[in-house]
Queue: 2 jobs
Job 1
Amino acid sequence: MKFTVRDMDIATGGIHIAILNEHDAKLLDLHMGDRIIIKGHPRELTCILDVAKSHKAMPCGEIGLFEEALAALKLKQGDAVTIRFTGKPASVEFIREKLLGTPLPYRKFFEIINDITHDRLTDIEKTYFVAACYTHGLSNKEIIDLTKAMVNTGDKLNFGKMVLDKHCIGGVAGNRTTMLVIPIIASLGFTIPKTSSRAITSPAGTADTMECLANVELNEKQIKAVVKKTGACMVHGGAMSLAPADDKIIDVEHPLSIDAEGQLLASVMAKKYSVGSTHVLIDIPMGKSTKAKTPKEAAHLKEMFEMLGKHLGMKVKVIASDGSHPIGYGIGPLLEALDVMAVLENKLDAPQELKEKAIEMAGTLLELTGKVKNPMQVARHSLESGQALKKMNEIIDAQGRQKPMQKAKFHYQVFAPKSGKIIEVDNETIAKIARVAGCPTDKAAGLYLHKNVGSKVTKGEPLYTVYSQNKLKLDLTKVVTKETNAYTIK
Amino acid sequence: MKFTVRDMDIATGGIHIAILNEHDAKLLDLHMGDRIIIKGHPRELTCILDVAKSHKAMPCGEIGLFEEALAALKLKQGDAVTIRFTGKPASVEFIREKLLGTPLPYRKFFEIINDITHDRLTDIEKTYFVAACYTHGLSNKEIIDLTKAMVNTGDKLNFGKMVLDKHCIGGVAGNRTTMLVIPIIASLGFTIPKTSSRAITSPAGTADTMECLANVELNEKQIKAVVKKTGACMVHGGAMSLAPADDKIIDVEHPLSIDAEGQLLASVMAKKYSVGSTHVLIDIPMGKSTKAKTPKEAAHLKEMFEMLGKHLGMKVKVIASDGSHPIGYGIGPLLEALDVMAVLENKLDAPQELKEKAIEMAGTLLELTGKVKNPMQVARHSLESGQALKKMNEIIDAQGRQKPMQKAKFHYQVFAPKSGKIIEVDNETIAKIARVAGCPTDKAAGLYLHKNVGSKVTKGEPLYTVYSQNKLKLDLTKVVTKETNAYTIK
């Protein structure tokens, strides 16, 4: 049966929804919630059926499709499509098996990931998959299989024989070293195409932060051009089709801030494998609010990353760093981007801890290649001589420079309740305040830390400033700042 | 800020969605996916924001709402509402705790169940709750707390001092004894108001089957009138506000056919407690495809139900029955309803096993009351004398008789591949075929079993007939009937 496309002109998330008039649905014996396949020319797409009760909302003979479905099918208002009923994909049964505690083989992971990639699973089904992997965990073999399934359901890029990469598993507010390491490495003639996710549980991911300076939503062709020109890029991985299931899984992890180990490992390594990385540095910050809380946990993650690297044919170097407190002054996409630029520009008031950590990371990665003598000094020279800044500007221009963003409209300061020495600044509380303020969607939202661990303060001195574009959200942060102590002063 | 309601004239499931024009959303600094509270007069409702890109799809100053939200808010096109931003409810954090493996206290279950009742949680959040309870399990205390939370977030009914009830935990195809036990018990002057769920993993629930004969979607006032008139009812519990969260939880269990023990216990007992049941019979069929696969598992469930009964102040009797094979001839709402009526009408070709099981159940429940001598004989007499049929017709008329339904348009027969004795008929395969055929949504879909366990068959004799209103779905069942053997012949 043929239907004429009606553009609903509305964007929705998750699986695609198609709307038919009640009368048409009845004729085809289709019900709300049924899965149907919509066939355009030449693409097809699985949608969940919704039913309109009136001819005004959806006339007979028409099918209502939303923005994402129209884009996926390359259709516009008035085009003709055919539809047919389809049952649940077999992968739903595999998800059920995992939820019952049965380990899955590669074939079943591939089916699940392939169906996620092609939007054939609903949010509910995807959520069960994430919950199942999270609560039952994944064996080493399952993590390798999940990684390979993610890679094999997407595109692979080839940037040459030696491709460097750097990744931080997060948990430390303001820890934006990637955006310094990339220009340092690239300024020395190495190839380092960096794809990043957006924030899952943190106030800002590298992609969110870089987006304050440059366009990060580049397609494959654009990325290749940027890397060819500059030797590097800093883009959002989700914009390409590299392990495309990853972002769709993150979409359902987000609402509960789930961050499962197996998925974390697969997610990181699949991205690296898809861009053909040969030398990878992974930073594991250690601290009470990071993924690795103890040296033992950090050693475990190190082992897992190295195991995966070995199975995928990559040289992987893992370093455990100090993740006990925020690094840099700014927390939130724009405020972190400003910190990064201050370091690259060698400004006097730039955050020194961020600079030193970036140099250490870059030096370690250079060392891993075996191609550079005195790697630490070389990295420092690139940064302090302005070479890295020059490279950063090249990358920004190649990706498409953003017009400078304004600081947030609203802000307030939080003051020291007593005099003393700051013995702790809690990453989790800082992240929570930033997220309630609107991070990462509100790029200008976040915190600016006037003081950090080790500083002495006098009662009434400002500890930090909270920013937001939304007065309501800023007011909500006051509940958090009152209830919890981001700073411990003794 | 005030908005004018636009009736989208479309029904959706799950949490409510509200649509604003992009321009209005920007003005209020609201983003797609934000939670907003819509305030009408006097009700308010939490919705998830969606954004329309054009004025045609949603003009500025208007807010698009779907059927369910309009019904919940008692609003119509053109009414004025105000909106405000709201953060995630605290219950999301409690769900996260449970997912991490932390047992929850009553207070947190109440918050979660209360938010589910009032549609303040998304499908993704509800799914994490179900998955967390399923994979980590629930302690006895948690099950009691969950049950109480379900009861206390809904209405409670009071039908008098002695209220009987009967429940089967399912797993056996065609096992429609409830619809026989209720009229038998009520014909003897007892009060037995039965509320049922719709099918979760089975081809038909009692509510789905009864709906082939009578209206089951009654409100509280209507149910009270039916029970006052007839001493009984057989209605869909979801139509009232008795433990209303239950059906909303089932909505997200459905896609993966999840049926978790803790939730099962809480679901059953909350419904019984809400209608003021004092004497409850619970049937636990035992077999390889039922919830209780072994006498040990049945004993465990028996203990759990009795423990809950004690804590909630109900007399609970649990019997483990033979659940090894389908009972009755029909599988699917209409075909099962026809079986029930054949037994009540004492037809010669009525399924005898269904009849005998119903008499045993009714007798056991009568015995539990301590008010009836020779309970088994009394139950049999009610059925064979036509008393139960008379009561059934009273109940049907009081609820609102359905016009007789037609058998399904399409069907085919499956024949014995060889001669021999039928040593097994697999409940799960039978249920799968029936569900692929369209059960329970398609009421006429299902199977009619010509032969059952113990019968001798000759090669080529019909074993069963598959029915469906949808040719496509009927064809899909052929894949299942080919790949799996519902019948084992030796």
Note: Chain B touches chain A through 54 residues (CB under 8 Å).
Job 2
Amino acid sequence: MKSRINVITIGVNNLEKSLAFYREGLGLPSNGIVATEYHDEVSGADGTIAMFELQNGLLLSLYPRTELAKDANQKIGKESSTEFSLGYLTDTKEEVDALLKQAKSAGATITDEPRERPWGIYSGYFKDLDGHLWEVIWR
Amino acid sequence: MKSRINVITIGVNNLEKSLAFYREGLGLPSNGIVATEYHDEVSGADGTIAMFELQNGLLLSLYPRTELAKDANQKIGKESSTEFSLGYLTDTKEEVDALLKQAKSAGATITDEPRERPWGIYSGYFKDLDGHLWEVIWR
């Protein structure tokens, strides 16, 4: 296995609302909801997703939990914030505070206010509309 | 917000076992468990993690669910496979099959065998020791 991850797909409850949070609220560029024409007869999953192109071709994809469950052949789990977090590095300390404020304005919940942590970073956490954690980090 | 994610942190139950799965089982390079000297008096979280450097400086980090919960100021959720998936693009179709076999040998569970999907990819899913989904994709 090569040392790479090409796509991060997060399961969401409402694709339109989550797209608005990430695109309008946080300002990430996206072509909006796509692949609505696809339906998988085998699993019953729809292809409908929204994607954001990040650095170096890395993709962030929003996909309804219901469809991820069908596509991966899994039962839908209960929302849980301790399955993963996404880390965003800022260029300045002030950006940590500003981005958390922006996320809150966009409808996110701040779970831990920015502060110095003993492992040499200044960071805070928010969770998105579906409870997914983001840690905003300056180091 | 810039279009970037720098770190993907996944919550695990047993750091040693998950490190072995990803390092020995899947072959991702890591310096092993680090930051064991750090403890956060504010949250009670330990810093102990294991990291894998992926392409272009992207980091994959394994962090105990208990500590992620403390660090982000959240309750520990129940394991759920529909919170997210990580997508890995292969260079050939055969690599999809081979990587899923390798993951299974390493202790992963294949949740959906590789097959053509109507949105133009050939892919299958496995979940790691903690139920985190990976989709292995050729397109």
Note: Residues 104 and 110 of chain B are 7 Å apart (CA to CA).
